[in-house]
Amino acid sequence: MKKSEIEDRFERGLFASRWLMAPMYLGLIIALAMLTVIFLRELVYYAPQILTLSPEKTILVVLTLIDLTLAANLLLIVMFSGYENFVSKFDFDAGTDRPEWMGKVDFGGLKMKLIASIVAISGIHLLKRFMEIGDSSSPAADDRTLMWLTVIHLTFVVSGVLMALMDWLQSRSK
Fold it and tell me: Is the pLDDT of residue 101 over 70?
């Protein structure tokens, strides 16, 4: 066997190995279904209580639902963009239902959408904890916990800004 033939087979095998990612995307579909079940469970639990919920509790419930929705959106972005960037292009025509960003989000864009979603989710979680202060029915968050939640959130924000700066600098260097 010639060297070029061995190299060709190796490269074909290496290229085909991208399909090992497919089961991981299937796992993310299952995770999306799990988030949907949790969302529906929360909705079914709180919807009958709508007339007895306090405004503060209602806001906390809504923030929880938004939090779950953002996590689900994040999963969709990772699934679609990751599959198209690393495994295979979608070969079907979804027509007008196809999201505008599909097929256009590269790894850098995926990274920015990911950090933006994490910052939003972290911010909502932090807001929920701040709103629980003084609520006797919620587990009390002590000052130390709130401080660490704030530090973690700010770390996500700073990381996002630094990633955006690195992407901007990289685009300017081309």
Answer: no
For 51-63, the pLDDT digits (tens) are 999 888 898 899 9
How far apart, in whole angstroms, are the C-alpha atoms of residue 80 and residue 105? Answer: 9
**Average pLDDT in the 116-137 region?**
82
Q: Which of 44, 28, 91, 39 is nearest to 66 (CA)?
A: 39
CA distance 165 to 129: 30
Residue 68 one-letter amino acid: L
What is the residue-wise DSSP string for 69-133? HHHHHHHHHHHHHHHHHHT----S--GGGS-TTTTT--HHHHHHHHHHHHHHHHHHHHHHHHHTT
Q: What is the token pair recorded at 121?
A: 């989710």
- The encoded tokens of residue 131 equal 């709103």
Q: Give the least confident one: 71-85, 89-103, 146-160.
A: 89-103
Q: Which residues contact 68 (CB under 8 A, 6 or more apart)?
A: 35, 38, 39, 42
| Residues near 169 by beta carbon (within 8 Å), at least 6 away in sequence | none
